[in-house]
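Let us begin with a simple case.
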Amino acid sequence: MFKSKHALFFVKKTVFQLFYFLFIATVYYELVNSKFESLPDFDKWVLVGQMLFFCLFVFIVNVKFFDKELFVEKNISKVLLKNAVMISVILGCLFYFDQYLSINKATDSRALFFYHLLFLLFTLAAALYYLDFINYLQNKSAIFRLIKEKNKFEVDLLKSQFTPHFLFNTLNSIYSKCHTSSPEAANMIFDLSNFMRYLIYDCSTHRVLINKEVTLIQNFIKLYKLNYNAQINIDFKHKLYDENQRIAPMLLLNFVENAFKHSQIGVSNEAYVIIELATDHEFLYFKTKNNKMSFPNKLEKGIGNQNTINRLELDYKDQYTFEVTDLKESYEVYLNIRL
């Protein structure tokens, strides 16, 4: 019937809201009708209409504007304080409207005030419950999507096992043939084999040891230097608080690769890349800095850091900070992650 889950989700939310406000209107009318029988029908419907309007206002304000403070900032006291101010203003408006329509003169103003307050607080509770339920459904949907993607990745990984196995056997054969005739070439093949083995096998786990990511960066630098005979200026400093700390795999290498790609390493003798990595008992601190090319690099195009940032959102949502300093002659990346 519905073309997508998003359409079904939208219909469910709409039906909930319609039934809720129909319920509010019905109950409020019955209360007014039984409590203030002497009021003309027009005045009764005016009371129902204004009550429905302000309840809808409270509901919409909370759903549209306070969801971030509730679920991202997790500041419930701030939300309740804002609602207290808003409801106080609404009660003042309702009292003014009732005075203007002369409804208070024919009714018990204290009972009317109590009804107004009761329904506004009830609507506030319904809005907060609605927000919590919607957030739960969205998180559940996101988890199912990630599980589905993970299962697909694992299946694809199993399908691709044959090719890496063949590749490593071939590299081992080449390594054994080169070991005596060309030791330097053999070491290059050995480093490449270790680099690829880590990418294909070790990175399939959810978390890896940070010291393995350090080794990965070191091997990447070593392999990169093989392309150039001249000395190139690459400085990698690292200091780990605990080598058994773990991190999502392949998060840092993309920043390193981009630093190499967009610097003048191998082109200019003044080019440089600086990489710094450190951890304490709780955080990882990572920085890359490189000079920028003085001419546009038309051949080197890629998705940049965005893919890694998307992974950070999945693996470390609200637990990382990422900053970029883009100057005329240099480019710096700063990344902090709560481990």
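The second case is a distinct protein. As before, the sequence precedes its structure tokens.
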Amino acid sequence: MPRPAHIAMIGTPVVGHVLPSLEIIRELVARGHRVTYANADHVAELITDTGVELVRLASTLPVADSDWPQDPIAAASLFLDEAMAVLPQLHAAYDDAPADLYLYDIGAYAARALAEAQGRGIVQLSPTHMAWEGAQEEVGAAFAGLPGGPAYRARFAAWLARCGAVTTNVEEFTGRPRRALAMIPRAMQPHADRVDADAVTFVGPCFGADEEQGGWMRPAGADKVLLVSLSGSVYPGPQEIYQQCVAAFADLPDWRVVFQIGSGSDPAELGERIPPNFEVRPWAAPLTILEQADACVTHTGIGSSSECLYAGVPVIAVPHGAEQCLYADRLVELGVARRIDTANVTAAALRTALMQLIGDPRVAAGSAWLWAEVRAEGGTRRAADLIEEQLVEERVGS
């Protein structure tokens, strides 16, 4: 183990970007490192529980999901505006005492600019899939074809030219990290064979000891468990689908149906009478239930998709958006899921998908194989080990 160091994490103030790496941060603190974490006030409570020193940033990003624009150029411009606003704050916090190593979220562009200006090492912690060979050129071409695309790229390039960054090509700066840890299973990565293996390591989802030790137990008499988790850490859930799930699974013999609902949902939306084989719970990270489940109905966000592979649980995929459709299709390709689009969700379709999944030995074999593959990626401990290896490399090279 290397001697204790100052490691700085530069985050993005979006819950879905904060949660995936928190256990890595907690592990680094437990190993004796001084860890500072730069992020905004509204996510501070999530962060400080890890034991880090919080560096408060004034963010320009929207807090409410409803305030995010749907237009891709407008959304990308918000992240660029954030980088421009945050970079001077980071210089004020870290120039007098630079970190030995910087970690950063995929959306925290200012972090890379800071580290390059200071000549320090940097590691990206990515909660989603990585760019592959040719992807950034494709993205750049696609952006150039959108209204406002060329102006956005020109503004980004102008900022890179004056902000102290060494990497001044926009596509390289945003899409080719020097070093990255992808906190998703490699099996979920599009074109995984075209991802730069020298720069990117897939460590899989990163959980803590408490999440893996349990807390929920399969009830006596429940031969099988179905988890229905159509919400998430930032998404309240498709309330109009809840009653179809009740109709599909209410009379399943010997099944316990654990129904997680989002913070914005009301249990009454399940219907006037909750079936006796149902257990309704507020949304929480579902790993402890998943590890005892036989199947899961989920919206297939990257987090829930990764958790299902980690737990070796087949999936009824009900995606809500384009990115979730991508993940749902990948699970289908892997042979461990059935996809039902929201417009086609009926009790009959849900029941049929469940029976197909649990009755197919190929699904069971595929789930078991993926369970072993994802566990072998190492998760939190391997991520922390690799960060410490990077610390050693930086010290040797300095």
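The chain has 16 helices and 13 strands. Residues 72-94 form the longest helix (23 residues).
Keep these points in mind for the review questions at the end of the chapter.
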